[in-house]
Amino acid sequence: MEEGGVKTMFLKQWLIAAVVLASVLAVYGAAILNSGLRAEDRKAAESHPPEEGPAPQAEARRDELDKRLLGKQILFFDATVKEGDPTDPTTQTPGATYLNCRDSYTYFVEAIPDEWRSGISRLSAKSPLKYRKVFHGLRVVYDEKGRLYRIENYYAGDLHGQLVAFRDGKRWYEITYRYGNRDGVSRNYTPAGKLLLEEEFREEKRVSSRDFHDNGQPDTWAVSGVIRDKRDEEGRPVPHR
Predict the structure, then answer these.
(1) Distance, CA of 241 to CA of 236 (rounded, Å)
(2) Which of 21, 143, 150, 173 is the most exposed place for a label (fewest CB within 10 A)?
(3) Distance separating alpha carbons of residues 203 and 199, to the nearest angstrom
(4) Is residue 126 scored above 60 in pLDDT?
(5) Structure letter (DSSP) for residue 179
(6) Integer Cα distance of 230 and 218 in angstroms
(7) At CA 21, angle to CA 19 and CA 22, rounded to 5?
(8) Which of 168, 185, 167 minimizes the C-alpha distance to 176?
(9) In which band, very low, low, confident or very high, does the pLDDT at 74 lie, cut at 50, 70 and 90?
(10) Are 165 and 153 in contact (CB under 8 A)?
(11) Mean pLDDT of 158-181
């Protein structure tokens, strides 16, 4: 065999070996990469567990509220309420009445149960109350100066969604509800509107809390009442028990 043919055969064999080696390395490398990704995924899943579905308690409350809502006509109210304004003596309005404020909300009317009426009659024998308003949907209240005062969300009479209260036009506090119970993030603010406290609730149970320094830096973080982290105003860790 001529020298050129030997060189060509050697080169072909070398190329075949190189391709096989590259394929092996690619498969092995992919296995290592996939293994690493799976480990990372497991680590992420452990640190951020998937959110659970609706709590049975919340679903039970919703079922009861759905029965209350069934077949009701949704009405709309939008007016500035002043002291001495005429009201319907037969119908009870739930919650607070904000005088000299523009109040708008959606609602339906239901008959007051007989057992409730008997209790009302004992307090006032001449009470004409027969019906009550039930908030359902968004309620927005503006103060005398036209600034936001309250934002409330209802589902068949129970707070559901976010409630936000304002003071002098600035956020004062906000609470997240789920069919009547605190469930989600709640926040409190300073008079200047800076974040003061942040809490998380699940079915009225406080899961965690974090308060803040005046300059906005996180202060103490606690989970189920146990302090997990504490920081000074510069963000440096502070020893804690």
Answers:
(1) 16
(2) 21
(3) 13
(4) yes
(5) T
(6) 8
(7) 65
(8) 185
(9) very high
(10) no
(11) 97
Instruction: Give yes or no for residue 152 having a pLDDT over 50.
Output: yes
Q: Enter the tokens of residue 32.
A: 């290592």
pTM of the model: 0.72
**Are 165 and 173 contacting, i.e. CB atoms less than 8 angstroms apart?**
yes
pLDDT score recorded for residue 99: 94
Q: Report pLDDT for 54.
A: 56
Kindly state the average pLDDT of the residues 203-226: 91
- Please provide the average confidence, as pLDDT, over all residues in the chain: 80
8 A C-beta contact, residue 77 and residue 94: no
Instruction: Tell how far CA 138 is from the center of its chain.
Output: 16
238 or 67, which is more confident? Answer: 67
> At residue 22, what are phi and psi to the nearest 5 degrees?
-65, -40
Domain locations in the chain? 1-43, 59-230
Q: Tell how strand 131-142 and strand 91-92 pair up.
A: parallel
Maximum C-alpha span of the chain: 124
- For residue 29, is pLDDT > 60? no
DSSP 8-state assignment for residue 71? T
**The token pair that represents 93 in the structure block:** 């309005």
Q: Tell me which residue has tokens 């709640």.
A: 186
Q: Which residue has the tokens 């300059």?
A: 215
Shortest CA distance to 156 belongs to which of 98, 94, 89? 94
DSSP state of 94: P
In sequence order, the 6+-apart residues with CB closer than 8 A to the CB of 152 are 105, 135, 138, 139, 140, 159, 163
Task: Give the span between the Cα atoms of 79 and 65, in whole angstroms.
Answer: 27
Determine which of 50-59, 177-186, 228-237 has the lowest per-residue pLDDT on average: 50-59
